[in-house]
Amino acid sequence: MNNVNPDRFSGVNSSAVSYDAGLKAHMNRVYARMSLGVLVSALVSFFVASSPELMKLLLSGPQAYVIMFAPIAVIWFGFNPARMSANTLRLSFLGVSVLYGISFSTIFYAYQIGDISRAFLLATIMFSGLSIFGYSSKRDLSALGTFCIMGVFGVLAMGIMNMFFFKSAGFADLISIVSILAFSGITAWETQNMKRSYSAGYGDEANSRLAWSGALSLYISFIAIFMNLLQLMRGGD
Questions:
Q1: pTM
Q2: 237: helix, coil or strand?
Q3: Could you tell me if 69 and 100 are in contact, meaning their C-beta atoms sit under 8 angstroms apart?
């Protein structure tokens, strides 16, 4: 008769359960922070759009370009999970959310509220499905992520060409479609990457920094999907 030590298996099972619980808490923290960023941007954009004085102060002159490019500057120079504390990353993330919110206030003048609501709902459904796919997929999505990042650079080049040369509404719609596809792939890949990067052994501070980094990545993808869906809705009017 084989002698089996049940304590050995109970220890393995306990470790697995502990890891799963920690991973679930980590991912929930990422999504909560990402959702906070979206909420902050929505509230700020609505508040600024409701005030003609603020619209004139922030977006009617050369300062509009400062507001437009400031989030990129913060992300590049003021958001470094490898060196910054979790508290500092939180401030940077909220700063990016506020700045994007100011920029987005113009959509209330360019689009109908019904189109905005539909685009937001559709973006939420798409984002949720893509994130679930990335979390549950057993296939390595790294190649997809790399391809989609290249697609984003292609979209930027196409946007510049359309701005200065083509000036075509049809080409703008094509750019929006490619953008949605690219950021959809990035959403799935980033979700899988966040899942794989988690480790209870890193400690709460390091995992919190990872969570802020993941929240920013998902926030950017969600906003990109939403804005390009909104562009397509206007193009279809």
A1: 0.88
A2: coil
A3: no
